[in-house]
Amino acid sequence: MNDEIKRIDELRSELHRHNYNYYVLNAPEISDRDFDFLMKELEELEGRHPEYFDANSPTRRVGSDLAQGFEQTPHIYPMLSLGNTYSIEDVDAWVGRVEQGLSGQKTAFVGELKFDGTGISLIYEHGKLIRAVTRGDGEKGDVVTDNVRTIKSIPLELQGSGWPDFFEIRGEIVLPWAAFNRLNAEREAAGEPLFANPRNAAAGTLKLQNSAEVARRGLDAYLYYLLGENLPYDSHYDNLMAARSWGFKISDAMTLLYSIEDVDKYINHWDKARRELPVATDGLVFKVNSLRQQLNLGFTAKSPRWAVAYKFPAERAATRLRFVSFDVGRMGIITPVANLEPVLLSGTIVKRASLHNDDIMRTLGIHEGDMLYVEKGGEIIPKITGVDLDARLPEARPVEFVTHCPACGTPLVRVEGEAAWVCPNKEGCVPQIVGRIEHFVGRRMMNIDGIGEETASDLFTHGFVKNPADLYSLTASQLDTIEGFAAKSAARVIEGIEASKSVPFERVVFALSIPYVGETTAKKVAKAAGSMERLMSMSTAELEAVEDVGPRIAATISAFFADEQNRQMVQRLADAGVTMALPEDANAEPLSDTLAGKTIVISGVFSHHSRDEYKELIERHGGKNAGSISKKTDFVLAGENMGPAKLEKASKLGVPVISEDDFLKMIGE
Ligand code: IVH
């Protein structure tokens, strides 16, 4: 028995080492077969000793398919972004500003690749990975530890020595090109929507509820920022080299640079060499090497002054136009789309690019069979930027915008003062109806799992769902009649529909597809109205009084709710039990005026209440919550681990920092 436990320990550390050799060093010492053999042995032993379970065991890398909603947690230090530059001159100017900021002190820089994936914060305690958190909104993120454990290049237990007892390391989770192309090929074969770029694919994968699927997709991770109290060195470069010796994957492209010339050379080199990399990058990052100098330079509200990003110029290719098609959106807007001879651009194959609207199409002056220039910038949504007139085919005719809806044949109308042509057949035009159902079930709206584009369309063609309210009378047996719909998925959809009834009111407003009412406007309108009943009876003048709502949006909201079909749909949603108002205490009664006239910034991690609860408490005691510290801040409510940037700023401006307990005393809790 004791021997078996000993063997488990041995196997675990041996397998950690082989993982490292394979996934970080790209230098395996043993064959895949031998590796599998050791893994099997460990699995067997662990099966016999469940009491010796370890979440960081190499066997856990395979993931599980247990659903696991994501808990949110505040970051110890906020995850800021970087200032962007787009030319060598801009980078040089930044170097100049840094040197000036340091009163001419000698400054070394570190050049790095800017990986185009999704940011991650990893927390290690006593050499073990204890938590992995996404960037989220920069202040708090989703805990995705189980998914991150499946990424083989992330050490679950550190090797070597000299790491602080507790530290954070940040980096980027990426889906290498090879894995990305494989994934998209599989999705295409299965008729599933493709990922636009490796960044979306990496972010989407990290948020999957099925860590076995995460493991299968082949994510990788590069680390580039070590944070904590007792770092081994006082320079960024040395700390990352130390991290490399602990088992982290630190890019070989990281280089010390000692002058502007070095920086420029680095840019010129990687502008070309990046095309050969196995992962997507969208630029370079330059950082001041000395941590002391970093501290001196400090932060602006959004980003460090000691680092800057340089974005690679967009790549451009020329390709032949096959034809222009016209898509019909859920609001009836017709979008012209250039269908192209496939062309490889920044690692992905481009076949279609939006031409946006009639005006843009006219300005480009596109003719049939034209050679078009396609560009892909940071956002990777391909864009047509011009026409090669020399390559125009003789007698080619200009491409005309359609006059009738390509889906239902209704004559199109053009809204006064707008570039868009619209199909007015809201209730009878299939892509509009299906588009509204699809929007309604989407993740940021009612979040009904299991219904994608295809299912939305199947539900409509089978006559089960003609408008979103019909979803609430859908049955599992109806779903079973849809070909290719597994019983398990049917159960999931029904559960998802039930769960959607408790989605907050503001998301219900967004889900309705009221023209021009996007996510932010929906939130503001919902908050101002408080309930659907009230929203439906608000006059245009009252609507215009809501922040962000101008006459145009006010008019469309009024028109939407004046429509009898829409009113009926909303009534049916209400009857089904969908949330139709803000929670009772959302506009809770004030508790006191202790904090009247005070502007308060919240920072750090709290133990008695959540951050949102503190925001609410501040408001209910008459105070105002602000996002960043300024001269106007009265005090900072600080939890554990307040970010160093905020601390520094508070002390510079002489803003008092008050602990959680003192604050609670102050408001008499
Ligand atoms: S450093 C405070 N280094 O780019 C500075 N970021 O716009 C922390 N990124 O959110 C970031 N490669 O997700 C840094 N070598 C690199 C990077 C990098 C990619 C991402 C990161 C960050 C975003 C900044």
Please write out the topology.
Elements lengths: L1 H22 L8 H17 L23 E3 L9 E2 L2 H14 L7 E7 L2 E8 L2 E7 L5 E3 L2 H4 L17 E9 L2 H13 L8 H9 L4 H7 L2 E8 L8 H11 L8 E3 L2 H14 L7 E8 L2 H7 L9 E5 L3 E14 L5 E12 L2 E7 L3 H7 L6 E6 L6 E5 L25 E2 L6 E2 L7 H12 L11 H9 L14 H5 L6 H14 L4 H7 L7 H11 L2 H6 L2 H5 L6 H12 L1 H13 L22 E5 L7 H10 L3 E3 L8 E4 L5 H10 L3 E3 H7 L3
Parallel strand pairs: 2-11, 19-20, 19-21, 21-22
Antiparallel strand pairs: 1-6, 3-9, 3-10, 4-5, 4-7, 7-8, 10-11, 12-13, 12-15, 13-14, 15-16, 17-18
Describe this structure in words.
With 669 residues, the protein is α+β, with helices and mostly antiparallel strands. 37% of the residues lie in helices and 19% in strands. It has a five-stranded mixed sheet with strand order 2-11-10-3-9. Helix 23 (644-653) links the parallel strand 21 and strand 22. Helix 1 packs antiparallel against helix 2, helix 3 runs antiparallel to helix 9 and helix 16 (505-511) crosses helix 17 (519-529). It binds 2-(butylsulfanyl)adenosine. 2-(butylsulfanyl)adenosine (IVH) is lined by residues 80-82, 112, 114-115, 119, 135, 172, 224-225, 285, 304, 307, 309.
